[in-house]
Structure formats: C-alpha cells, structure tokens
Automatic annotation (TrEMBL), chains A, B:
PROSITE patterns: HTH_TETR_2. Keywords: DNA-binding, Transcription, Transcription regulation. This is TetR/AcrR family transcriptional regulator. InterPro entries: Homeodomain-like_sf, HTH-type_TetR-like_transc_reg, HTH_TetR, Tet_transcr_reg_TetR-rel_C_sf, TetR_C. It comes from Streptomyces bullii. Residues 34-53 bind DNA. Residues 11-71 form the HTH tetR-type domain. The keyword Transmembrane does not apply.
Amino acid sequence: MTTRPGRPRDERAHAAILAAVTELVAESGYAAMSLGAVAARAGVGKDTIYRRWSGKAELVYEAVFTASDAAPVPDTGSLEGDLTVLVQQLIDEFSTPAAVAALPGLLADFAAASDLRARIRSAFLEPAKQRLTVVFDRAHARRQTGPDVDVDLVLDGLVGTVFFRLGILGESAGPELAQDIARIAAKGIESR
Amino acid sequence: MTTRPGRPRDERAHAAILAAVTELVAESGYAAMSLGAVAARAGVGKDTIYRRWSGKAELVYEAVFTASDAAPVPDTGSLEGDLTVLVQQLIDEFSTPAAVAALPGLLADFAAASDLRARIRSAFLEPAKQRLTVVFDRAHARRQTGPDVDVDLVLDGLVGTVFFRLGILGESAGPELAQDIARIAAKGIESR
C-alpha cells in the first residue's frame, strides 16, 4: 500500500507517524484529527506524510487495522484452531480504542471515495487473504478441506461478522466469540 | 419500530411516505434528501413524518431495508434451501438503487447516534431474527440441527457477509452468492 523506505531514519519516521495517528485518533476522534497534529507529534514535516499516504483515510487505516498483517500465520494443527487465532486477531484490531474511535469517520470517507473503496479488496484485504490461504493450504494437506475453498468468501464472512457485530452494532466481544465464529466457518468448509 | 396506524387513510399516507423516500434517496442521495421534499412528494405535512419517525435515518432504514420483513418465511424442506432464500432476500435489499445510494450516509448517521445504534439489535434486526428462528426450529424438527443454534451469531454472519461485500466493498452479487453463503452456514451449524 505504501512504499516502505529502506533507510533506518525513514523507518523510524514511519513508525512514529503511525504511533502518533493511533494516539491522536483515540484522543480526539477521526474527524478532529488533523495531519498537522500528526506531523507535530511524530516530529516530521507534513510533506513526509503526504509523500507516503494518499490522505487521512489511508493513513488511519494503516495505523489502526494492519497490526496483525505481519504476525506469524497460526499453525495449531487444526483448521478450527487456526481460524480461531485469525478471528481473535480481527476482534482485537476492532476492539482497540483507536479502532472504535476511527471506524465511523473512516467508513464515511471510504464510502465517499470510490478510488479508496476499489482498493479494499485488491490492496487492504490482501495480507489477510494471504494468511488465510496459508491456513487453507495446510488444512488441504491434512485432507480437512478440498482444494477449492472460496477464500474471498470466507474472508468476507469472517471480517463481515466481526465488523458487523463490533463495528456497526458497537457490541463488545465475549471470550468465546472467536471460537464460535471459527467453529461454524471450519465446519462449513471442511470435507465430510 | 413505528406505531402502525389502523385507519386506511393513515396506511395510505405511510405507504406514500416510504415510496417517496425510496424514490428521492435513489434520485438525489441520502445527504441531499430533505424531509420537506419527502412530505411534498408524498402529499403529507412534515408533521406527519415527525410524528412517526425519529428522523431521516430511521425513516430511510424502514423505507429501504425492511422489504422482506413481511415476506413469508421460506419452507423449502432443507436448511440450506431456506437459508439460500433468506440470503437472497438480503442481497436483493442491498442491491436496490435506493439501498446503494442510502448506505454511506445511513451508516454515518447510525454510527453517530448511539440511541439509534443501540436499537439495531433490539428493534431493527428483530424481524430477521424471528424469521431465522422459524427456519432453525423447522431444521431442528427435521433433526438437521441441534436445539442450541446461536441465532444472533448466524444472523450477524449472514448479514455481515452480505453487508461487507455489497455495502462496504461495493461489489455486486453473482447468481451463486446466496447459495454459496447458505451452503457454508448450513453445513457449519448442522448436526453431523
């Protein structure tokens, strides 16, 4: 989604910008957070931000909703176990103060910007799809699933369920939610 | 959600208001649609609208997203068949020009109004939950499922998947989508 700079100083600036966004959006909400305030807290110039992100929506998305993209892919030995870990990571992302504060404004900006919206599947969801594909490949190797699982559909189902309950309804997740979702999904796609 | 008037003239006014909303939101979008324009097109006074609905969000929700609430509950003889019909009704609701035009603004208004948001589960989703409960009771009578299906979770899964793909990603539904979703959900909750 963004060009990752190779130099350590740029890496530090990148991390400082994302940390500043996470703090500021939780403190003041999405609409009130200015990129000037982000730049000031991160100790960079505003041009550094504009060089790397198309605008506030993309910047907040990366800061708030990509925490698990670089985490190791779970390998618990069962499809249900692996999906439980992945769904719990989604739940954790949607439950942070920054995510709760950001989501309404972020949704409105994504809905209004067709160029951003068109990149959700092709760019923003791609790391999650890759992680899910690894899990399904392992399940297939264990003969738990066939070779033809519709990864996009399962991804939409897992993300959509968590997004709808936590992000739209504003409910909090009980301790069983990840496993309850994973159990239905795993059973729904396993070979019998 | 609203007090249904018993007198025929009020019934006609109610239907005229909902029809006017459906037309106007598709023509001009959610933000630009005024309740004054709705009243004028429906041939009623604005006070008639304010007596029945808390505001634009609730009015548009009822006009656009409750079409299937009064439809007969499907009874195809199989859980997958019944769920396919219910999911297709959801897809049809989310695919109307009025729904596509209304959703971004409606989402933003619901997200900003905690009183509305708190009523999604208890009021707005209740007719769909009742329909799903009838389907699960029949499946249990056929011994296809146990007695303990988590209806709220399955409802969030079905609505969330359709909502995420059509409403958030803006993708259109292929002819197989309803059955693909229903197959995974039915298999996921059936007794083995």
